[in-house]
Design brief:
alpha+beta; single chain; 565 residues
Length: 565
Amino acid sequence: MNMKRNQWLLMLAVAATLSGPAVAQAPAESTAPEGNSTTVHLIRLLVEQGVITDAQANALLQQARQEAQTASQRRPEPEMREGDVRVPYIPEVVRDEIREEVKQEVMAQAKAENWAAPNTFPDWVSRVKLFGDVRVRNESRFFSGDNIDQLVDGQKYNEDGPFETNLGPIASDFPPLMNTREDRTNLLRLRARFGLEADLGGNWSTGVRLATGSSNGPVSTTQTLGGGLSKKDIWLDQGWVKWAPGIWRFTAGRAENPFVSTDILFSGDLSFDGVSAGFKDLRVGDRVAMFGTIGAFPLEYSSDSWPSSSPDKSDSEDKWLFGAQVGANWVFNQEERLTAAIGYYHFDNIQGQRSSECELYSDPYQFCDTDWSRPTFMQKGNTLFWLRDIQPNPDADVTSMPQYLGLASEFQLFDLNLIWDTRVFSDYKLRLAGNIIYNDAYSEQAMWRNAAGMIVNNFDEDGEFESGRTAWMVHAAFGSSLKLDRRGDWLTFLGYKHIEPDALPDAYNDSSFHLGGTNAKGYYLGAAYALNERLYFQGRWMSSEEVYGPPLSIDILQLELNARF
């Protein structure tokens, strides 16, 4: 502080000396000055502080005398009246330097004493972004009275199984069955998600997101309220690390869906475990930008201890999803944009495997060698078969036949997505979108061979097997905005879906339409209105039925309030 103050005094003295008329005075140790000018006082103070020497002071005073004489020759000295104060002129450059010096010293003191904004919060606060959303939904489900009344719940069958299939002489209980005829109205449901994203520097970032959910199933983070007012579960929904140099993106962990897709293939709530790499905004001319993604995602690892009842453990039988996609964005003008993307998804080792001959009668705790191939999660629609080749007991009239269910088909999917955004009627937005999925690995003959003839579903009323390999949807949205990010924005939408039983795995798509899964077709429509930039209301109606097999008609009404921050 003393050094800077001395510098300021020196600058003021020089400025005063150079600024115009002054009365010549002797240095501090000489005879007392006859005048009382500001210049003399400043120079005396500099000598007392040891900033300048007597010789330097005399030089400054001599310069002041000379400039005063010159100035008096140019114009007469203004007459001083009683009460007047003479203020020396300070050049602009000197004033700027003084101002900057003061600013720097004040800010340094503010930071050190923590009484100014720049140091109020820790450094990490500026690098972390918090975000989240809350959705409160009222949902009603309406079932036709003509629906099939014995639809096996494959997920519960495998979770609680194996189930006895030799009904009558051994077991009289039915396997787990889905509700297909009794309406469920006014279910109050909640989805709450909270996350943070942190900038780590050097194009690195990381993020974590927590979410509600009735179970650890992959396709929904929505939880039905009630349960005696019990507290609700919170799950780790995402946790990832990303490196993004330039147009490239590399992500590892559990992250959002990296592909352009619709919810007939991947639910909007689905997060992906694994690693992905891609690029975006690769310019090809003035109007076209390319993008692409590849990824590897583990669906299930073999248990280290399987089979738990045997000292001989099985080989690794891991299940994976490998995906690749390439696409382009065409910008025709400010109002029109076309996005096209084609992808390929290989679901590796998820097809069920028929076991070798299995003599369960010799040991009630015995396993069969392909029990591992049953799916970890499924909804409904895919063709299923009994995995175990159980051998009859030669010493008994009746043999127990406890079974697991496996997927009959393989899945190697080609996926085409098209999205066209435009503006109509001046300020209104229109989006038209389409999606086609083709399972190249589908083969009825291969399915029957793999299942050894033990397929158990997707039969019509005459006992004929029916399935298919394609899925498609069309979607249209129209409104003042597609993002609903301003008060008063509104949006209407409608679409149609057609999903054949084995066009795709039924485990990962939207859990609302037809209550999830495949073997479904029907329409949906709805509207949304923004109450402000962070809050909007939406209503949606979905009506669906089966593509093949026994009747299964499901209508769903959803009314919801969405908040986001």
